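Below: protein 1.
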Amino acid sequence: MIISFVLVSDKRRKTVLQRLGIKQLPESIRKNRVDRPENRPVWVHALSVGEVLSSIELVKGLKAGLNRRNIVFSVSTKTGFEIASKLLKEHVDSIFYFPYDFLISVKHIVRQVDPGLVLIVESDIWPNFLSEMEKREVPVILVNARLSERSFSGYSKIPFFSKRLFSFFTKICVQSGEDALRFSLLGIPSNKIIITGNIKFDQEYDLVPETEIEKLKQIMHIKPYQKILLAGSTHKGEEEIICDAVARVKKKFPSLFLIITPRDPERAESVCRICKAAGFFAVTMSDIENIEPDAEIDAIIVDKIGVLRRLYALADMAFIGGSLVKSGGHNPLEPAAYSKPVMFGRDMSDFRDIAYLLVESGGAVRVEDAESIYSVVSKLLADDRKAGEMGNKALKVFNANKGAVSKTLNAVEWIIR
């Protein structure tokens, strides 16, 4: 059944051989294997793009503090692999795909990697893999762990399985006291749980020079007087709402420029059609070079991987996708780090604490539909001072909550020393 599901998806089809363990792992893994157990590599695993981005500073810290050890890095998705290959290749010894949770696949890949320690970032928890680590007496740490109310409710219905699953972990580094309580209620001993905070606050965001911002605007046909709304990591069902709101806003502020970055870049063409149906002159980012220099574009749909962060630096305000539909939202710290006013919908369950801090500080607002997006965007466009204050409050939240990576590294060092 799982294999049938995988083969239906083009993206999953491209990774199936690696994840089944049929395709060889990188040569560097085989070369770096050593016989002494204390020198076995540290294996860091991140599910997809968001977890990869979260783990960058953690990996750098591991590299600096564990220089005698190799660090190998795995992902589960094609887009995650692309981002990891781009951002982590200088900091890890190998990047590869995490195995499907079939015993034969797990055993084959684990035997080749031969880890001395495993760190799983946030999620992607699989019983056969964890059981194999227990048999091999390899400590496993769950990093940046959280348990939403929905997840906790689900795990509570199968208490024996849940307790056994999480008991495989040597340590569970949780984001908050509320997460710690929920793990405890599942029967996990308190001495296994450490409150470290959220490592997303420790992500580094390079300042984008003004010259680069101006160059990007020229490439994207954005005029100096235009304000930019960036809708990042949007999901199906959200773009119609955003376009409806922007169409209304443009009646009062006709120069508003819209950038939409779908969570799945392969949806870019369909999103472009949605924008055109709303009456916008819309193009994909890949097609910009084919547009006449003096063309008046209303919207650009981003169909490229790895550019969203820098586009937040370009924007005047940001909407966080995955929040108007039930998808848990995406990372609102990305625009906050660039001092941008932030909007998101009701469902930010995957970023519950961050969303709460941003709203409480006044750095973000919740929106529910096209009408509320229209209202917020209109107010921000009409009052530059208010928009600036809101962005500064978002930045303060980002800067005030750092330190989780350091606490996580302390937990790692305690286990392996």
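Below: protein 2.
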Amino acid sequence: MTKPREFFRYILLHVASMLGLSCYILADTFFVAQSLGADGLAALNIAIPVYSLINGSGLMLGTGGAVRYAVCMGRGNRDEAAQALYHTLLLAVPLCAVFLLMGLFFSGDLALLLGAQGTLCPMTQVYIQCLLLFSPAFLLNQIVGAVVRNDGAPQLATLAMLSGSFSNIILDMVFLFVLGMGMFGAVLATCLAPIISLLLLSLHRRSLRRRQHPWRWENRQIQPAVWRTVLATGLPAFFTEISSGVVILVFNFLFLGLLGPVGVAAYGVIANLSLVACAMMTGVAQGMQPLISRAWGRENRQDMQRVLRWSLMAVLFLAILITAGLWAGASPVVQAFDTEGNRALQQIATAGLPLYTLGLPAAGINIVLAMFFAAREKPIPAQGITLLRGLVLIIPLSCLMAACWQATGVWLSFPVSEGFTLLVGFVWYQKGKGKQKQP
């Protein structure tokens, strides 16, 4: 049975980990803007979809493999747990091969396809090519980190994540400002981060040897059913990562048509703040996942409901706290991002921030519910919630509400789509409870 102390240990570690990750992304963007100016920042933004594709693939394999691993360990079947890890790593091989081929031969074409023009092309190509060539490190880091977290070592997984993130910040400063390496230095710092994280995660292997853990893979047979389970369980994480990039593109387009470039800049401020808030709430969901998967493997439904209830309370507390803080400090928060003193940007962002952040409590609950279903190897409701909030609802709603209420409609499309998704998620949850009660 999960005790409150164990629950809070998992939650706090993962919230800290996700907060560190989101802060390093903000710092990375800041250093590129300071060192390379508007062109560097534009090239970085153009290359983001490639990073989302690589990171989303790693999250898919890491989440799917870790859930299967935790469920098998909860049932006391260590051999099947090792089998899950083995098949997850095998899935990464063809993905890495595709990414490497793209990096070697098609990075320039990708830069053009994503919209790089003129002087932006060389910087964008360098960034994309380096990301693709280091893709095995990104994928392996996500897989190993997720499995270590589910193998009873959340502290090590968090330490590895934070070490990689903060090393990126330090290396950014060295490569950009001390060595003057330009865009190659910026992307090299990003690509070295997962390698540093993996070096720390390797310490877990020594612990396993002392415990004689069966991570040996001799004479293992290929089982396609394990691949199907891993992919189905991990797809929500992939869709979440990919859809966020698509939504940003759609919102940029809408604000560009309604308010011009200053509207896009104002949305960029709020999008970054929302990124940090959602990352913290995702940390709650990730901390919950090993506990839910373990209870599911042991068929302890009472423990699952207890952990879910605690997680919902934690994510609501975070969401309300963040929302209240942003409402109270909207003006100074926006000014902190506006180094040029653009009054129009400040007015747009200050007006939009309270409207947009209305959706954070519902978003937090949706994130936890999607992970709750995924942790129990229920891919359909998990993928359904993820797709509804990430693509299916918010894109048409934002376009429709923009036509009706201009910029106000765009801001409100986020809370409206999250609210509708919450209703659907609640129906799925109630149906699941009904099936559990049937004899």
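Residues 226-433 form one domain.
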